[in-house]
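seq as requested:
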Amino acid sequence: MKILTVYSSLTGNTEKIAKAISEALPGSQLKKLPTDVNPQEYDLIFCGFWCDKGHPDELWEEFFKNIGSVPTAVFGTLGGDPNSERGRAFASKVLERISAPNILGLSLWQGKVDPKILEMMAKMPGAKPMTPERKAKLAEAAKHPTPQDLGEAAEWALCMRKAVEK
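struct tokens:
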């Protein structure tokens, strides 16, 4: 089976998850976006993004348009907790956007937030104040992805591959 793990990453979060996925799948090709690979040449694609203002990033969006009917497992990283109410809402929004018969599933992991983005957001009109609660959430995000997250990503990848092999 010819497998591609392709990803876009700003701070390295999605790259870490992509590497864990690729390493769990012997023979998987690992490519960072942008890339000139033809998705139609693969039997299975793992396609990863980072959350950009509540949406998958533009590089990912551009690549994703060309996947066609190839079985695809989608993964992403975001600064918030994927299991929180906001995280689940984000996942639902992404699933609505990518809904197609060839999409095997979506999995999200938490990752650190780029300090430059925090600086930019602090300067915006109506910016949220940096409360102790918000600081704590950002400190927790900075710990991710953890070794446990990477292990979960590898297990998830193996499950997605098994689903295609059936």
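The longest helix spans residues 147-165.
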